[in-house]
Structure formats: structure tokens, C-alpha cells
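At this stage, I wrote out one protein's amino acid sequence and its C-alpha cells, and that material follows here:
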Amino acid sequence: MDQIYIEALNEAKTLSDSDYLLIETSTEDLKISIETLKQLLSVATANKLTNPFELTLSGDAAGTATIDGSESVDIDVSQIKATSLKNDIKINGTPFDGQDGIVTDQWGKERQITIGGCSRSVNGESDIEFPANEVFSGSGQPYVPTAGGAMTGDLKRNINDADYTVYSATTETTESGTSVNIEFGDVNANPFILGLSQPIWNNGVNVKKLLTEDDIYELERRINELESMDTQTFKNPYKNKTIVAFGDSILAGWGWKEGTGIIQPLKEKYTDATWINKAESGANMAVTSSPAHTPIVNQITSYTGAADAIILDGGVNDKNNGLPIGSIETNYDASYNTSTFCGALERSLQYIMDRYPLAVKLYIIPHSFAKDNSYVDSIYSKAIEICDKWNMPYLDMRVYSQIAMTSVNKGKYTYNPNSKKGDGVHPNETWYRTFYCPVIDQALQYQGIGSITASEAPEIVAVTGVKLDQMTLTLDAGDSAQLTATVSPGDATNKSVTWSANNSNVSVSGGKVTAKTAGSAVVTVTTADGGYTAQCNVTVNASTAIDHTELTSLSLDGNCYFDTEILPDENTNTKAKWNLQSGTTYIAGAIDDNYKFGYTCTDNFYAVRGTVNSSPKPASYWNGDWIINQTGVSYQFGDTTVATDAIDSFKLSSPYYLGNMSKNSTPSGTGVVGKIYYAQIYSGDTLVADMIPVKKSDGTLCLYDKVRKKYIYNDGTGTVTE
């Protein structure tokens, strides 16, 4: 291509893109536009980077992006932290940056409030007043107006903060003017709240006559009358009522206000009622030999005051302490065994129903919070059955506590004074006020508190004596007989009795006497009221006749145990053959306040002698036949040998149980789930009991002691099968 030359301009001029220049070439002249010329003369530029790079944000905001310069980029922010607003804002004149809450003494918008003829602008900055002369100066006023005002409508009077009384006000025109007739009306039919309702007056009739002194006196009389009417009782169903609570730490308020607890919020709300809390932290429902706290059954049966409503709970501590559940009686006047949960609860309800028939009653099944519901199901299935039998209303708080029955809420809703943290068991103030008390309040009102006035507590009829239907008994070892106690007089308030025997030749429970070993014994019945006694002399003959068939084994369901009547000491040795299934916690032995002897298991076996245990961890733990063979401190479990406490001397006060542990002479925990083949007990090298499974001619399954020539029967509530 030929060289192109651009002719110089003779004069300066402003060129636009549409102008042309004359270009001289070797061959011809050309015209070229300024726009084209700019392109020809322009310097080439880059539109992107050869090597892109990363942009990175860090700190309070995090994110990355790749940029090559060809276009803009956005960085996605994955983390943003802000502690305050970039620019403060003002809320009702108060600066706010989001770091802290604010308090403003003004409303965002003023409100106009009008009462009668008085109108005020309110912005929340201060209190306002409504002078009576201004309130009564116009039409539409809600109270008795002055002369010239309107009189047709109803009068309203505030009785207290929550209740409004309605009065009917009408006018009557006479020659001397217009008079006012006032009658009280139905507070529920026409409720009125000042400031939230439209005024009820109109200008139908002008008043020509002010209220006289007699009119004012009548109005005050009507007001006083209304305040004493039953309508006020309806608004506060607890007015002049006595509400009594019995139970354990849940009702006592161990996690908040010990001694008031469950009733405290209700006591604060309903001040014109009498609130009494007899509950004690740690209390069992059942009676034990040396209770640290008043058993709930005794809390109830010792109370003789008035009661319009009764609240009670109990049973969790019975479960914790391994107390026997017991059985439910078929009638309503049995001599209930108060050393068991069932017997103690039945005795409590019997007392309540007899003494306070008109009182509102409520049994509370406690929450379990983070604990598995099965923890209390075993005992409270019995509680519900008993409540149904006695027509006792109950409230299952586990149903109403689902929000709090999570581990994350333990700190929010529970408190343990010892550990200073939430334990998932004992309610704190928030829990009582948020869940417990509103639900209990609702339940008591639903049951009719306030609608029925319970009579004063009936006069206590004291016990004057007791007698037995039999003064003497003769039994063969292994046999039983029932004694019946009659308390005098027949209408005595407290007919509770306890049974005891002076030695181990017999045992007695609820009046049922079981002959154990040959000899004699005295059975005594004692009244709870007055301590009156009656006795029966029992003679036990040795059982010589063999009327059984030997069996290979007996199957136990975990609620069975056999009382050997032998008190273990440092010389006691055992040999037994077992087959265990999952669910066993106690195999055999005894526990008292000082020593232990026997065999337990949870995840492993534990052999216990004196005060020290040893864990042999046998390979054949479940579903295998194996033999325990003890000689002094040496124990052999199948192929595993361990040693325990070599204490010089000890002796237990509790008898040796097979199939469970005797704890202070009562069964403890879950016993053997499985089979027993035989059990031998030695004193040193001397065999003192050799017990084998048998089936008697009458079909009874039990153990027979070949040494003592006696039968040993299942004393538990479970079933023994072949």
C-alpha cells in the first residue's frame, strides 16, 4: 500500500466525528472521516489482566472473588458481625444505636383521652388528671352527672382492679322535676371498663333535680351489699377458703421458696384465702422405719384443720429409695399397708374422702423434665389406678410440662440449691409461675372451688380401744392365717393400725400371719390414734409331711423374693446356681444402714461383703447357667474369682433375701429376672440352709429348705412359674 500523508490544516478548527480530512496519496486524494482517523491513530489498550487475582475480605466480614479487570465483581459475604448501627437513629427523641435497649418516657404519638366532658392529650411523659368538675360538665359522662346532664343509662362502679359493678339508672318525671331510680344489675351481663367502652348516657331527659342525701345513702348501701354478695365469691373463688398442700420437694418448693413453693404464686394472687403447705422436701409417700422427713401419708392423716381444697403429690422419692410399690386393695376399708406406696396412697385418700368429702381434691403427677418418662411410669401407673378407684381427680404435669422437659431448659426452669444450677427436677420461680400454678389454679377452679362451700373439718372422734377376732393361733410352718382388728368406736376418725411380731417365728403384714419356724410368737396390733393394743399368741408346729415334687428350677419375673430369715454376718458363705436375664439389679443378699452382704448387678456383677464390693465381670453374664461359690472373702463366679472385704466382724439386721435385696427388712430395687436352681447358705463350713425348687401338691411353687424342713414362699408381688 502506498504511503499515506495527511495534509496539514491551514487554520485551527474544531472537528466533529462527521467532518472529513483530505488525504493525499501517491495515487489519488482521499477523504477520511475524523472518527476513522481517531481509530487509526489510537493506541491499543488492554481490556483485561493476563493473570487474574483473588480479592479477599476478612475480619467481621468474610468472602472472596476473582477479578481480571474486564468487568466489575461482587463479593458474597458469608460472615457479618455488627455491634452497633453505623448511624444512630432516634426513637421518640432518644438516640439508639442497637448496642443496648432504650427507655423512652414519651409515646411515639400522642393520644386523646376523653372522660365525660373532660379531654386530655397524653404522650406518656407524665400522669394526667381528670377533674370531677370537668368530667361531669358535658354529655356522655359515665357517672352520675350534675344538674342539666343526662340520666338515662347505667351507673358503673369499680369494686376492685378487676371487677366492675353495674347499676341500672332510670329517670321518672314528676311535677316537681325528674327523680333518679337506681338498682344494681348483673355484672356479667353488661360489663363496663372505663376508657374502653362508649359512654352509655344520652341526652334524652334533662335532670332538674340533683341526688338527695337519701339517694346517696341508698347508693352506698347498694354498693356495700354488692361487695358482700356471692358474685364477688365467683370472681375470686378462693375467697375465705382454706387450701392445704401435702407432698415432697416439688410442692414444698425446695428449688425456690422452701415451705411455700407451689402455693406461693396462688397465695400472692388470692390474698383473702388461707394457704397451708405441709409438704416436706425428701418425703416418701410410704412410711419407713426411720424416716428423715414426715411421710406424706402421715402429713395427711395428722392434719385435722379445715380444708376447702387439698393438693397432694408424692411417689418420686419412693421410687428413688427403692421402697416397695405394694398392691391395690379391692375394698375401701382395708387395713392398708402404709409401708408400701400403694398402701400409703390408699390410706391417704381414704382419710381425705372420709374427713373432707366436700373439699376440692387434686393429686399431682409430677413432671420428669429431662428424665425419661419411664422413670416414673412404673409407680404412677399404680397411682392413676388408685385415683380412679377412689374417684380422685389427678393432674399429670408431664402433659403440661413438655416445653420444659428438655435438657436445654433445665437451667431456665429448674434449680438445685446444693449445686447452684438447674437439675432438671426441682422447679424454680419461673417454672412455678409459668406452668405449675396456672395449671393447678385452672384445675382447682374446674373441680369447683368456690361453687361448693366445704363444711368445717368434722370433729375428731378419738379411738378408745382395739380387739382381735382371735386371741390364739396354731399353725404349721409355712401356713398362714388372717387376723382382723376392730377399732372402737365404730365412727372413730383414724382407724389406722400397725402390726408387729416379737420374733422371726412368724411374719405379719396387714393382719396376715405366716408361720415360719417351729416355736411361738406374739402378734400385736397397735392403733395409730392413742396407741391402743391387742395381742394374739401364735404357736408354730414344725412341718414334717413332705407334699411336694422337686423341680429343676423356678422362673422369677423380677418382682419375686424369698425371705430366708437368716441374718448374714462375717461367717456367712453362699453357694447358688442362677440363670439371669436382662432387667436384674439385685440377685440376693441384705442391706442395712451399716453393712451389705450379697450380690448385685447393673452393667457388671458386684459381690459385697461388709462395706466393700468387687466387680468380677463374668463373661457369661446374661442367659447362661453359672454358679456362685463363696468361701470367706473369696468369690467364684463361674470361672472368675475375686476377693472382697476382709472385715473382722459384722452382722446385718436385715434378713438374707433370694431374688432381691433386703434393705432394712423390705425389698429393694428390681430383683432377679431369670431362674434359680438351688441356694445354699453356710455359717463358716456348716450348712444352715439348703433350698431347692419344689411344687407342692396344691400347685404352689416355692423353695424347700432340706435343713430346716420348711417351705419358703414368694413374698413379692411377682409371679413364680416353672
User: Anything to note?
Assistant: Confidence is low (pLDDT under 50) at residues 1-8, 138-211, 230-234.
